[in-house]
Amino acid sequence: MYQPSALSKRMAVVIALTCLAAISDFSNGSVAIAQNPHWQSSNGKRADAYRSTGTPYRLALRPDKDVSEQDDLLGGGDLSGDDLLGGNDLVGGDDLLGRNDLLSGGDLLDQGFGGDDPLSQFSAAVPEPIKQAPSAPDPHEKLWTENCYPSAESCRACHPGHYDEWRSSGHAYAAVSPMFNRFEQAMTELTQGTVGSFCVRCHSPVQTQLKIPRHASILDAPPVVREGVTCIACHRVREHYWRGSNGDRRIEPGDIHAPVGGATGGHGLATALSQSEKLKLKPAAGQTGPGQDIHGSSYFFEPLKNSDICVSCHQVAVHPGIFLEVVHGQYRNGPAAAKGISCADCHMGAVPGKPAGYECGTIAELSGKPYGEPKKRSYHGFWGPGYSIAHPGIFPLNHKAKDYSPREWLEFDYEAGWGTEEFERNVPPGMHFPAPWDNTDDRRDGRKVIDENLAKAHEKRSNAVMTMEAGLKVKGPHFITKPRAGQGMTISYRVENSSEGHNLPTGSLGAQPQLWLNVALIDPTGKRVWESGYLDRNADLADMHSVEVAKHRIPRDKDLFNLQTKFLINNVRGTDREAALPLNFSLDQLVFLRPGAVPVSVLNHPPLIRMEAHSIAPLDHRNPKFHIPASAMQRRGTYRLSVRMRNRTEPMYFMRQIGCTPDMIRRMNENMLDLCTSSHTFMVK
Questions:
Q1: DSSP string covering 481-544, please?
Q2: What single-letter DSSP state applies at residue 570?
Q3: Ramachandran region of residue 368, left (φ > 0), alpha (ψ -120 to 50) or beta?
Q4: How far apart, in Å, are the Cα atoms of 528 and each of 85, 384, 525, 672, 682?
């Protein structure tokens, strides 16, 4: 049997590194910049407070000791103190995998080889890099960026309605999401940076093309980068990409006057341009005098019309072939696609989640007045699930917020009431406020933006509930056994996916979004005597991922109905294991996602990893059963069964695993969606 030498083992490591760059019934429970901009120092590392010591791959969004709490996208002092949910979690001493798991300590290259360079004994010493002073901010950076990649702020001048819809959407949230930044950071660290721009190129495509290093802070990036999937990410693409691109598509550089793509022939724009002098329009660069900048031309781009524009980011596979985004594949094989219903028909139409036509209205405004004939108008808020857990000064995006920097917004303590009339009347003498919030006028101005954004975030969350309920039906209860005092009882519900589009749930990272049934039984005295779908004190469901269940502090929820899809990972040998990340769970000298030894084309599925799907296919249903013990049915009288489907975008054990702050976890739970709530009373004799 071949035994590799020590040198070959070391060489393998180096080659690898080189080659892969709420109901009361329930429990509580790619263009280069000529000069280095301010986000990059001359040595390639961040030149600000976000830089962590030790590795250029670490964002200062992780709660390391050398990170200032002001660097958290959530704002506030949430990096210290006790876990707001209480108890020990997987990051603390109760890690079920023990101390030597994927997230503890340094990596194998730092520890397993004693921290030495594997080839140090075979080569001359590596010289110390020349230290250079950080570059000063480029005064032309903002102008240069805007001239190549106009921000949504520029588009707002002619399309204020579209901007107002989009600014609270999942597309606008893509880059500033604290959850995305945490997740991308964890994957970068676990793979020693070999995932490259895999995540960023979908969440912030302009950042990819500007070649802004991924370890730079999103807080210091140009506005168009913070806008995530901004206007030009769809309307400045000329090539037809398909699933193989995995989010890597090119935005055509150009200023606000450059052509834009659309799903129509651009007749309205052509008519306006023919009257440019009368309408005071400036379709070309260099035109002076009063007037409104506008595109000089447009082009028809069919992928915007037939949903193909969506596929490059909504059907994404990561090595070794596991799909992290599955929604477009489900859509292509579903009833909606067979009927010719597009993604936009449900997600940009007049009714959330339903192909019920479009609103009719004007598309643009010129000089503050609606222009053109009313026509089909797509909704750019993109009906869908999800909600923000970011500081409301950061998101929703707001043109009125640009008077203050993102870092300054993170200092604004909106939860303490800053800027409200009551707070400002009662500010004690000598109370310290950080600049620029050290005067009442700025705090009051900031409060107006905060209140406006909070209202917009609430609107987005309400839209998410309407979208989910458009495709979700819960019917029941159905009594399988007759309710009698002193006897156990079995009931069932019928959970339907009434949508023709795709599975329920679907979307981001197939194994993350949670959608489960929460059922509670209330006895004649008003006491909750039984429940399924409850949360433990860490806000986890009572399944195998619950530390409380593993320590026998609470019983496992045997009847839990959870539609969350899970990753199943193989070790080098042994059986499958559920995992939160699509990553080999055993430590390995390979710093990248472990490749399979057998091609996917032979196995017909990715090796070593698979998805354990629990979602409901279009127009299908499930009938979960619940067994209520006799101990809960001791009294005669009127009982009540209350039910709701609950949805949150991330499970708590996953958030803790990737280093989310307690405040992130709190906000994720505070904004949880309650869907299809109902109650049913029945008599027990």
A1: S---TTS-EEEEEEEEE--SSS-BS-STTTTS-EEEEEEEEE-TTS-EEEEES-B-TTS-BSST
A2: E
A3: left
A4: 22, 33, 9, 21, 15
Contact 325, 565 (CB under 8 A): no
* pLDDT tens column, 33-45: 223 333 333 333 3
Mean pLDDT within 473-497: 97
Beta-carbon neighbour count of residue 117 at 10 Å? Answer: 14
Whether the CB-CB separation of 673 and 92 falls below 8 Å is answered with: no
Q: Which pLDDT does position 325 carry in this prediction?
A: 84
The CA distance from 95 to 101, in Å, is 9
What is the Cα–Cα distance from 444 to 457, expressed in whole angstroms?
20
* Rounded Cα distance, 35 and 41, in Å: 10
The vertex-502 CA angle with 501 and 503, nearest 5°, equals 145
- Phi/psi of residue 218, nearest 5 degrees: -65, -25
Tell me the two tokens of residue 244: 């193989």
Residue 3 clears pLDDT 90, i.e. is over it? no
Tokens 């279009």 appear where? 618
Task: Let me know: does 633 contact 483? Beta carbons within 8 Å.
Answer: yes
Distance between CA atoms of residues 450 and 27, nearest Å: 31
How far apart are alpha carbons 471 and 352 in whole angstroms? 10
pLDDT digits (tens, 9 = 90+) for 8-31: 433 333 333 333 333 467 766 522
What pTM was computed for the model? 0.79
- 279-333 per-position pLDDT tens digit: 999 999 888 888 899 999 999 999 998 888 998 898 888 766 777 788 888 999 9
Q: Are 534 and 29 in contact (CB under 8 A)?
A: yes
- 519 forms beta bridges with 532, 643
- One-letter amino acid at 480 equals I
* DSSP bridge pairs for 465: none
Other beta carbons within 10 angstroms of residue 565's beta carbon come to 20
Identify residue 185 by its one-letter amino acid code: Q
Residue 582 pLDDT more than 60? yes
159, 71 contact by CB (below 8 A): no
Look at strands 281-282 and 260-262 and give their pairing: unpaired
**Is pLDDT above 50 for 548?**
yes
Q: What pairing do the DSSP bridges indicate for beta strands 292-293 and 281-282?
A: parallel
Please give the backbone phi and psi of residue 14, each rounded to the nearest 5 degrees, phi first: -65, -40
Please state the length of the chain: 685
- Residue 533 has what pLDDT? 97
CB-side exposure of 422: number of CA atoms within 13 Å?
Answer: 3
| Dihedral sign, Cα of residue 242, residue 247, residue 250, residue 254 | positive
